[in-house]
C-alpha cells in the first residue's frame, strides 16, 4: 500500500529512523553522478520539420546511444545521463520512424566535440540542424534500431517479455523504487514489459502502477483479462523520481513500440499516481501530434489535486524524495497538468473510491487519497465517464465490480 501518502506515517518516518533518509541521500547522490542534467535547445537553418530526435552518446567511436529525446520540431530538451563527457546528435525525423536516414538533416552539439559537465552547472547543449560544416553522422543510427542501443546500454526495457513473478516486480521492489530510486534502476527492471511476445491480433492493455507500488498490484485484473483478445503490458519504474521524467519515459517507450509494431489500439489503465504519470505522457502525445492509437485511458483513485502530506515531506524531511516536489497540491506539475486537453476522441474513464478509513478521522477519502483530490474539478470536466466505488485505495484493484466495469469500458472504447 502506498503508505507514504499518509501524513501521519510521513511524520512517523522522520521520528523512527534517520537511516532511511541517510540511505535516500546516498542514493540520490549516486543518481546525480549517473543522471546528471544536460539541457539544451534544438534549432534549424531555414528548415521546416515536425519531429526531432536528440541522442546522447558516451563514445562516438563505439557510437553507443545511451539516451534520447523526442521533440515536436524545434525546442528545448533535457537529457539525464552520467556526469561525463557526452556527445549530442540531433536529426529531423522526417518520416517519424525513429530511424536516422542519411538524407535527413542533422546537427551536432559543440561542433561534434564532447560536452563537458562542470561542477554545479547545467551544461548548455545547443544544436543547429542543417548547419554547414558539421561532422558526419553516426553510422550506428542507421545500422541498429534506436531501442536496441537503449536496451544494451541504458538498463531499460522496451517490450521485453517478462514474468510478473520476477522479484523485480514485487511489492518490496516497489518500496525500493520510492526510497532508493537509483538502486531500483540499477537492478534492471525499469521499462515497459510484455507478458508474452507481441501478437498483432491482440489489443494491448498497458497497466501503470502508483507510488510505492509495483506491477503486481494488477494481478487480479490481469488474471481475468481475456488473453485471447488482449495482451497485457506493464510499466515498471522507480516511483521516487520526478513525474516529468517518468511521464517522458512512458511517452517514449510507447512511441517506440508503436513505430516498431504499428498497432492501431492501445488501452491505458493506471492506478493512483500512475494516473498522473499517464496523463503527463498523454499531454506529450498531444504536444507532439502523436498517439492517435491510444483508444482509452482509465484512471483509478488518482490524486489529481495532489497529496497534502507530500508538502510536509518537502518542508521538513532531512532529504526530499524527488517525487514529493510534484505531488503536493499546487505543485508546478499538477498546476499545469490539465493545460493541455485530451483529444476529443480519447475517452477518459475516471474511477474513484470512497471507503473511509476511520484512522484518518475527518474528511472523505479512500483511506489514502482525499475524495476532493480524486475529484478535482478539471479532472471531472475532462472525464468521459465518472464512477465511484465503495472501496479503499487498495481493494479497488481487486473488486469484482471494478474489474468488470473496467473491462466493459475497454469493450465500449474499441
Quickly list its features.
alpha/beta; 4-stranded antiparallel sheet; 414 residues; 15 helices; single chain; 8-stranded mixed sheet
Polypeptide structure, described:
- With 414 residues, the protein is an alpha/beta fold.
- The protein contains 15 helices and 15 strands.
- The chain has helices at 7-16, 18-34, 140-143, 146-153, 171-179, 181-187, 219-224, 243-261, 273-288, 308-316, 324-327, 332-335, 371-374, 377-382, 400-413, and strands spanning 36-44, 52-57, 65-71, 75-81, 87-92, 106-108, 124-129, 157-161, 191-194, 203-208, 230-236, 266-271, 294-300, 348-353, 385-389.
- The strands form three sheets. The protein has an eight-stranded mixed β-sheet, with helices on both faces. A four-stranded antiparallel β-sheet has the order 3-2-5-6.
- The longest helix is centred in the middle third of the chain and has 19 residues, at 243-261.
- The two termini are 32 Å apart.
- The relative contact order is 0.11.
- Mean pLDDT is 88; it is low at 1-16.
Provide a compact summary of the structure.
By secondary structure, the protein is an alpha/beta fold.
What is the CA-CA span between the terminal residues? 32 Å
Strand content: 15-25%
State the strand order across the main sheet: 8-9-11-10-12-13-14-15
Which series of helices and strands comes N to C?
Answer: HHEEEEEEEHHEHHEEHEHEHEHHHEHHEH
What would the average pLDDT be, to the nearest integer? 88
Low-pLDDT parts are 1-16
* Number of E-type strands: 15
